[in-house]
Amino acid sequence: MPTDSIPCRQGILIAFCLLQGLAMVWALSWMMSDDVVTKKPVKSAPKHSTYLCVGENYHTDSWKYKSCHFQDICYDGTNFSFYIDPQYPISIPAVNELAVSVSTLGVTHSAIKFAPEVVVGSFPHDPVWADEIDDTDLHVLAVEYNGSNFGHVLGDSLLPWWRLLDMFGLMEGDYPFRPIHMMIEPPFTYSCEWQIRAGWISDMSFCGRLYEKIAQPFSHRALVFLQQHYSMATNEKPICFQNLVTGIGMLSDHGHDHSVHGRNTEALDIHMVGGGPILWKFRSLYMQRIGLSSTVKPIPGLYDVVFVDRSSAHRSWFDTHEAYSRISERVAPIGAHVSSPIDFSKLTIKEQIEIVSRTQVLICFPGGSSYIALFLPRGATLIFVFALSHLSDGRQDYPLHNNMAHIHVRWLEGQKGENTGQVFYNVTHLEQEVELALVRARRSTPPL
């Protein structure tokens, strides 16, 4: 072996060892910095927060009508902080530019204002990220209103939650989101906490069960309370949110201060006019996210006519079983099937929608349970029996139902009895409305 080749071979060996060492260092650093199993990079702290707000009208109360999508915003157990990069002082928001209403406006009192604190300075170095707690990077912030009522949970929580996510392009397929309710003092009027203090309900479990029943199948994450779920009692690090949407003032089924969702004639609520496509899109996505087809059609002879029954005595009503007998006789000659009155509150939300989405005629009364009518199929008919003389059973639900472009809505006025609490109405009128609705449904085949 020539002696002059030995140094050359030693050099090659040294170079090979160095390359091997560098490769090991690179691989080790990659494994430490990333989740090798999921290939998900470790989140690095951004330099500042960002936002996109819509609905500005340049009035002093414009915050009531706005909605915002905040990115990389942090919560310290008391306040939210929005971080501005010191290099760009021009990005400091104007007064109320980040403010929104976390409550719906069509209720009995003023809106609840929310705005993060603007911090000109560095973003927290090593925060806890909410997506690590919740296994989702989408969060919706609001104040709860009347969570013991089916209609308010659907119209004042789920609908505005979805509209927030949808308007910012964040609602895709079955992707989960975490709904968050702020606890405020004094409690929001008619909220669950307010109802507990007023003696209407005993504890939060009633509202919790309703949200679990109606909301969680849609959000795929349980509703939580801000101050409890993100407490810093055992963690001194701030909790930061990649995507936090809020501002539901005009996004519920009613939308003006003190209108009491349309009950008072002097506060005419027209904000849902033209909202039929919005309601249909929400209906379709809700059904899809709970595992149902949104294009099912009625099957003749199955749920031709359905009565919504109710056991609660605090609202005036009529004898559904008597009406059921009368209607059954009336439509028997045309081969229509009338279902026995159904107490939908005893069914799961999936069972309720499976029935209603195949119903041709739904007969009910104003109030929370009527909101299941949102899931009627195209061409179906909703018939309200109501007493205009009884304030809590007036036409307070018209902003939603009268703007559902996929159904026919008929209002049958009666009078509240002085001693019975029942509504007396023209039964023949109801019979004719039902028969006409069935004939109309059979003559037309609405598109999907």
From TrEMBL:
Designated name of the protein: Glycosyltransferase 61 catalytic domain-containing protein
Family annotation (Pfam families): Glyco_transf_61
TM helices/strands, residue ranges: 12-32
Residues of the Glycosyltransferase 61 catalytic domain: 150-383
Organism of derivation: Spongospora subterranea
Keyword flag Transmembrane helix: yes
GO molecular function: glycosyltransferase activity
Presence of the UniProt keyword Transmembrane helix in the record: yes
Database matches in InterPro entries: Glyco_transf_61_cat
Organism lineage string: Eukaryota, Sar, Rhizaria, Endomyxa, Phytomyxea
Keywords assigned by UniProt, alphabetized: Membrane, Transmembrane, Transmembrane helix
